[in-house]
Amino acid sequence: MKRLYAFFLVIAIALMPLANAFASAGDVTIDFTDRDVYFSRTATDGSTVYFLSDTVIYAWTAGAADVTGYRILMEELESEDISDNGYVSAIGVYCDNGEVYAIVAVYGYDEEYNSSLGSVYGVRLKLEGETAMPEIATAPLDWEPLTESYDYGSYARYVNSCTAVDGVLYITSYGDIGSEAFAVPLNGKYASKLEDITEPVVMGRYKDGALFFLEYDYNKPEEASFVAYDPASDTVSALGEMEIENYTVPNGLVYSEKDDAFYFCEKGSVVRYDMSSGEKTAVNDIIASNYSIDSAYILDNGFYAACSYNGFYVRNTDPDQRSSKRIMICNSVSSAAVQKAYPVYTNEHGDVSVGISNDYIEDSAVTEAMLNRVSDFDIYVVSANMGAYSACFNRGYTAEMTGNEKIDAMFAEMYPSVAKAFSKDGVILAVPVSSYSDGFGVSAELLEKIGLTMEDIPSNWEDFVKWIPEGASLLEGKDVVLFDQWMTDKDLRWELFTWIFLDYMKYLTYAGQEQGYNTDMLYSLLKSVEDLDLSPLGLREAQEENVLYDESGDEYYASVEPAPAYDDGLGTLFTSYVSQTSEGSYGEYVPMAMSMTKDTPFILQMEMNVAFVNPFSENRDEAIAYLGYIIDNLEASHLSNISPERNEPVRSRYYETEKAYVDEQIADLKKLIEECSEEEKQALEASLADMNSYKEYIEERDWEVSPEGIEWLRAHDDTIVVSTYNPQYSDEEGVIGNLLSQYMDHSIDLRTLLSSIDKKVQMMYLEEN
Amino acid sequence: MFTRKRSLWLFLLPGLAGLMFFYVLPFIGGIWYSLTDGSYKNSFVGMRNYLNIWNNTMFRLGLKNTMELSAICAPLIWLLAFLTASLLMRIRPQGVFFRSGILLPYLMPSSAMLLIWLVIFDYGGVINRLVVLLGFEKVKWLEGSALRTPIILLFVWKNLGFATVIFLSALQEVPEPLYEYARLEGAGFLKQTFGITLPLIIPSAFLVMILEWINAFKIFKEVYFIGGAYPDESVYTLQNYMNNMFSKLNYQNVTTAAYSFAVIVFALFGILYFTQRRLLKRLG
Fold first, then answer.
1. One domain, residues A569 and A465
2. Chain B contact present for A467, CB below 8 A
3. How far B108 CA sits from the closest chain A CA (Å)?
4. Residue B65 lies in a domain
5. Fewest C-beta in 10 Å: which of A61, A208, A392, A702?
């Protein structure tokens, strides 16, 4: 017998770690991205959470793996207020006595098709099968305090949050004078504003039948106040204050009566906040961060439920049940691929808890983490231009990732220059997760208008600057200008200077930093800008500016003479913000491959965001595995940018829905044209023509990876470089900015400027070489 | 010698423990950093870091500037402090105000002093007005190689008081009758100084030299505040180099530079120490 007891005891001890091996029991993550799940409001009865859109209500019940959608049969709603000459709109949702209700606003049209708000009802929704049958359950509600009028009609104000207590709807709504709280009786009696509640940004249930409000005035951003409102006595009492940083009020704030504590999301964690002690304790991980939670609840089982536009999350609030394996991700650049990887990874790795913080991280925080060898974050997703990332990469403070199948496969098909930027001696140290490149571009339509082709425009800065006066002479009488019409001559000279200078920085990234800035090439290019005769362009003179002060005492600059009104009819031939990758279709402007001179190549520098694993991570394998899931969710345009193997155009994700919508509209219009009177035919035919044009536009432009983008990228992919940390580019101490200011103020000449910049740059370069 | 040796060690223990844990052990441990490759794995690479760093242009520039600045500042302060202390000796006891006042710059926070310096040495500031009055052209004191001058002046102004106080206390120990005897024998100021004063204050004199040289080696925050991480080449010090390497997580270069410099400093102070001993022996 003793041996039997001993045996079971051993088994129990051996199995104990498994109790914590799984992510907190009961946690649920439902992803809404790339699904047609849209909602505007939520409510809960304690065990079921409802998500309301205009035509569908979704419900999640405890234990379910997904939400279930019910189409609201609004057409079945009967009331003498509802006529064919109007429409109804669901503007809110609440639960009362275990049932779910929508707040439905009835609108009517007048003769000129202006809509006005009629009645507002509480409508019971009976969920059966795949539909929700609506039934008016209240008298017409007094919505007058929540109605906004305008010249042509009226509408119901936006309902931020809504809770029913003892036959009264308590609503927060944002209006012209800020956020306000209202009490709307469900029996149709007069509604009233809760005057003692000021600037409520969050409302929720409190204890003993009361409601709590978080009051926050954006004009006094350092502090928010918690107050409790007792509906029975119509009194407000203060609960406490909370310090607020960077205007970030607690996201997903909700009160738990069982724990007598508040819960909210912060930096990838669900946090319990004890008002009396001010103590915050992280109890679980969550993907959402400070700004993405739309609403949150504490369910009857004590779990925290958070509703966000990209997902629904249920989290166990018992910290003892937290998984022993956790990876924290610092998603400093808010990469969508990191977010999308989350539900797939967590569903396949139930024993690993994942938290994602979307807050921006400073260089110093990353450097300190490496200095102190801490593993607060297992994965960092940052810009490749970040100084701290560059230091980590160069100094070997990134975990090696070679050996992961997905990562190896991605690198095997990359451009060599891109793969080299993220690996050392064949060992992969970081993964690029997004890329883009902007550059100089020209309007193809306007070129054609003025009778020129791409071949007529010089494609190097040396010749382009000389061409500018000649180019201006070709535009007379053609309603086209070379550059932005509001530019003065000083502005244009500065813009040209900046474009050339920045392109020269890209050139150095390709050709080697040791060349420096004090070169004849750069000097002659910038000198040509200095000496350029801009009179043929007829630009405005540089304006004197006054220093003025606004209401808060901050200074700003205003021209002595006001700028002329913007002429919509004037086309601008050149711009500097055209995508130079395969992403999207070109629109009006196409990229130009501008090189420094005839003898230098065009450099296609890509800005990238990158993910790397903290070498001090305690769950390094799990973190590297997560990167594999990120790769599965990378944008097609990014993969096309970095891999010459990806040459298939990819339609935009909205293409199919847009096309279906347009086809439906075209079919409806055609039907109407057949049935309409002669007077209406012309207008309908014009609408049909517009819709057909739009369809052509979608077919031509609705690309995530466009055919012409791929063609352009492949034609210039031999000079792709990845933009990495460049001290002179980031110019954290303003050294180069200071020199440039002195040059623009004519305190120093061009040669002095370039030699001074060069000295600084050479010092930075020589320090590590 | 000590009748209560145990209790003596007991009193010394906390200080010695702190010295051990916060200075000696990290100093020894840091040597390991200078012999590793700098990745999070810390692989041993021998003397490669030292070879690399001594071949690095910016390290040598920083070292050169640090030695030059200290070679200017330390003797300058020594000389000025000695002269000031001698002057103050002549006007005591009425010179109490000056003896106290001379320490004030030492007590002022550096950042406050730097702000004053920025105003004084600004292109349109007081110093340039004086320069113009003297018939010269304005100088951009806060830029380029001219930045050395305000840096040196700031260092001297800040540290003069402390050195003067040390000299003052040493001068007060010199017996007055010796000077009286020397004056009777017809010795002037210089003869008295070199024949009486300096020989009798050799330990304090060397102490001042060592302290000021150490302080001069630490010139950095003034340069950084005005010139940034990459100031003009003439004021780019070893500390600038180490600070920049630190921010790039290049601990290997930081420790290698620090230990290389430590060897030079030990050699320098070794020379000073032996010079002092020889002098004392000769006079002894």
1. yes
2. no
3. 26
4. yes
5. A208
Rounded to a whole number, what is the distance in Å from the CA of B38 to chain A's nearest CA?
6
What is the number of structural domains in chain B?
1
Pair B257, B241: CB distance under 8 Å: yes
Is it the case that residue B3 has pLDDT exceeding 50? yes
Q: Does A535 lie in the same domain as A516?
A: yes
pLDDT band at A559 (very low <50, low <70, confident <90, very high): low
Q: Are residues A446 and A490 in the same domain?
A: yes
- How many Cβ contacts (< 8 angstroms) between chains A and B? 56
Q: Which residues pair with A123 in a beta bridge?
A: A102, A136
The DSSP secondary structure of A275-299, one letter per residue, reads TTTTEEEEEEE-S--TTTEEEEEE-
Interatomic CA distance for residues B106 and B109, integer angstroms: 8
What are the tens digits of pLDDT across the range B204-260?
999 999 999 999 998 898 888 888 888 888 999 999 999 998 888 888 889 999 999
Contact B37 A396 (CB under 8 A): yes
Nearest to B241 among A397, A616, A767 (CB): A767
Residues A9-21: tens digit of each pLDDT: 444 444 444 333 3
Are the beta carbons of B39 and A367 separated by less than 8 Å? no
Q: How far apart are CA A427 and CA A402, in angstroms?
A: 6
Question: Three-state secondary structure along chain B?
Answer: CCCCHHHHHHHHHHHHHHHHHHHHHHHHHHHHHHCECCCCCCCECCCHHHHHHHCCHHHHHHHHHHHHHHHHHHHHHHHHHHHHHHHHHHHCCCCHHHHHHCCHHHHCCHHHHHHHHHHHCCCCCHHHHHHHHCCCCCCCCCCHHHHHHHHHHHHHHHHHHHHHHHHHHHHHCCCHHHHHHHHHCCCCHHHHHHHHHHHHCHHHHHHHHHHHHHHHHCCCHHHHHHHCCCCCHHHCCHHHHHHHHHHCCCHHHHHHHHHHHHHHHHHHHHHHHHHHHHHHHHHC
What is the residue range of B216's domain?
48-91+162-283
In chain A, the number of structural domains is: 2
pLDDT at site A22: 40
pLDDT score for A17 = 40
DSSP code string of A530-574: HT---GGGTPBPPPPEEEEE-TTS-EEEEESSPPPPP-TT-EE-E
Answer whether residue B256 is part of any domain. yes
- Kindly state whether residues A423 and A469 are assigned to the same domain: no
Structural domain includes residue B132 = no
Assess whether A567 and A489 both reside in one domain.
Answer: yes
Pairing of β A571-572 and β A480-481? parallel
**Do A374 and A457 belong to one domain?**
no
Task: Give the residue among A696, A688, A690 at the shortest CA–CA distance from A672.
Answer: A688
- Residues B94-139: tens digit of each pLDDT: 777 887 888 888 888 888 888 899 999 988 899 999 999 999 998 9
Show Cβ contacts of residue A38 under 8 Å, excluding neighbours closer than 6 positions: A53, A309
CB contacts of A766 in chain B (<8 Å) are 56-58
Tell me how far apart the alpha carbons of residues A199 and B94 are, in angstroms, rounded to a whole number: 68
With bands split at pLDDT 50, 70 and 90, how would you rate the model's confidence at A613? very high
Query: Cα(B208)–Cα(B77) distance, rounded to whole angstroms?
Result: 9
Q: What is the DSSP letter of A23?
A: S
| Structural domain of A382 | 352-434+607-642
Q: What is the CATH number of the domain that holds B279?
A: 1.10.3720.10
Say whether A642 sits in a helix, a strand or coil.
helix
Summarised one tens digit per residue, pLDDT across range A358-416 is 888 998 899 889 888 899 999 999 999 998 999 899 888 999 999 999 999 999 999 99
- pLDDT for residue A11: 44
Q: Is residue A387 part of a domain?
A: yes
DSSP reduced 3-state for A487: coil
B245–A767 C-beta distance less than 8 A? yes
Mean pLDDT, residues A738-754: 86
